[in-house]
Amino acid sequence: AAGPLVLSIESSCDETAMAVINGRGEICANVVATSVDFHARFGGVVPEIASRKHVEAIVGVYEEVMAQAGAHLGVDTLAPSDLSCVGVTAGPGLVGALVVGVAFAKGLCASTGLPLTPVNHLEGHLMANLFQTPDLQPPFVASLVSGGNTMLVHVRGWGDYQVLGATIDDAVGEAFDKVAKALGLGYPGGPVISKLAARGNKKAIHFPRAMMHSHDYSFSLSGLKTAVITYIEGENRAGRPINLPDLAASFEAAVIDVQVAKAVTAVEETGVSDFCVGGGVAANPQLREAYRKRFGRMGVRVTVPPMVVCGDNGAMIAVVALRNYRAGVLADLSLDANPNAHL
Ligand code: KG4
């Protein structure tokens, strides 16, 4: 009754993740193993470490997701023959990380005869919004903000994506990570910065709002990052203690002001009435609130993914895989990873 069962595999960065969903898009199991702790002391993801950790984790994650899905469905453990399709993230991402998931998916499909479908990681972040708003329908505007991407997209239809603009240098998540690194706050920077910012004064320090009035949808984050680091160094040299909450709040406000301003213009120019956000930075409470406030006044509905599917996960990949499977978008066993895949 619940239709096909789809297994998804995601290994584009530092999370080894798999999920099983049914034909109604309901999650039967969602398992994430992260190697984030192994990257923390380097202040960012080390690609070779990520690859090795995927190799270590992937069989265990598979056994766990099949066991959890089995328990959910009232059987002992799911067998490959219970599945209808395997979906795997083919890109974009770190090539040495992607190939681990792709090779595992191909091995599984080669040994079982299950069909294979390739999934675009960014489309996964976009469709994670369906867990919050199942009736979300194009056209709408989406902001994709993660450690690797910052873009505004006009979703004209599912699979019909017009990228309105993107960052010309750093991604938003990357800026959070680099500021946190400069403050010795570890990796990833987003969660710790946003927690500090929640009790800071965002007007304490003025940081530049780059390209805010550039009349396009491009973003630039590297100047802001440099301004924050220059500020930190200046305070350190002067022997003044840094008020971390104020610094975090002021930095975040500079990011959010530009994100919101460009999103508003995109929604106005395209004439849509829905706006959504995807990617790890979508977990940021102040960003969510700023969108809700601004768009609330305009009567535009704002959707953000549930917290558990903001960061990289298998469930969002499974949603895309299910759509692909139904549309007959399949790959043969020559599928390769594409680290630069476009939306
Ligand atoms: O989507 P994701 O898990 O991986 C990528 O595909 O990049 O996003 C991770 C990024 C990191 O840069 C992290 O610092 C950021 O998302 N992030 C946040 C928050 N939580 C995670 N950024 C701002 N505020 C947050 N609360």
UniProtKB/TrEMBL annotation:
Coiled coil: none annotated. It is found in: Cytoplasm. Fe cation binds at H121, H125, D312. It comes from the Bacteria. Substrate binds at L144, V145, S146, G147, G148, D177, G190, N284. Belongs to the KAE1 / TsaD family. Required for the formation of a threonylcarbamoyl group on adenosine at position 37 (t(6)A37) in tRNAs that read codons beginning with adenine. Is involved in the transfer of the threonylcarbamoyl moiety of threonylcarbamoyl-AMP (TC-AMP) to the N6 group of A37, together with TsaE and TsaB. TsaD likely plays a direct catalytic role in this reaction. This is tRNA N6-adenosine threonylcarbamoyltransferase.
